[in-house]
Amino acid sequence: MADIRVLLVDDHEMVRIGLAAVLSTEEGIEVIGEAGNGMDGLRLAQEYIPDVVLMDLVMEPMDGIETTKRLMEQQPSCKVIVLTSFLDDEKMYPVIEAGAFSYLLKTSRAGEIADAIRAAARGQSVLESQVASKMMSRFRKPLQDASLPHEELTEREMEVLKLIALGKSNQEVADDLFIGIKTVKYHLTNLFSKLGVEDRTQAAIYAHRHGLAE
Prior knowledge:
- By secondary structure, the protein is an alpha/beta fold.
- It has helices spanning 13-23, 38-48, 64-74, 89-98, 110-121, 129-147, 155-165, 170-177, 181-195, 200-209; strands at residues 4-9, 29-35, 52-55, 79-84, 102-105.
- The protein has two domains: 4-135, Response regulator (Rossmann fold, 3-Layer(aba) Sandwich), CATH 3.40.50; 149-209, Arc Repressor Mutant, subunit A.
- The protein contains ten helices and five strands.
- The longest helix has 19 residues, at 129-147.
- GO terms for molecular function: DNA binding.
């Protein structure tokens, strides 16, 4: 069986040297080239046609997100494994949407990286556990927000909602909370929008249905 051909794209030379050294000891894996930036990575990918690319994210003049996007347009069968120190949303989600096949942190052990390369060659994605947890949280949150819109209310807006659910007027709400009438109206406008209701009556009904009224 032919070796899995791997291209390394990382702007830190010592990282590339280290990866090349540890992967050279792994059976069935061959490092066929190294690039210090995204532009060179694309050029070498066209020249060598790798099976797998280990891709850093933060590089100049072209970062890993744009490099991954362009590589997928040119070679859709190539598997990009992101290998980075970053776990922030503004980098992780865009590169996955761009076509990254797997996402690992540079704290991963050499054996884990090699296993991810072999898995990618079999068509299996690998996500580092912290990455998987963040993705699950991202996809669960919209469902929670959609079913419980009152969770978006501020503490003050919730207080106003509970009082109007008790049938209190704007003036009574203002007196109870020691705020002005204009402030009450401001909070009402905001909570109506967040709850998706049109008036006090609908807001009160919502509060009672969800057990928010005292």
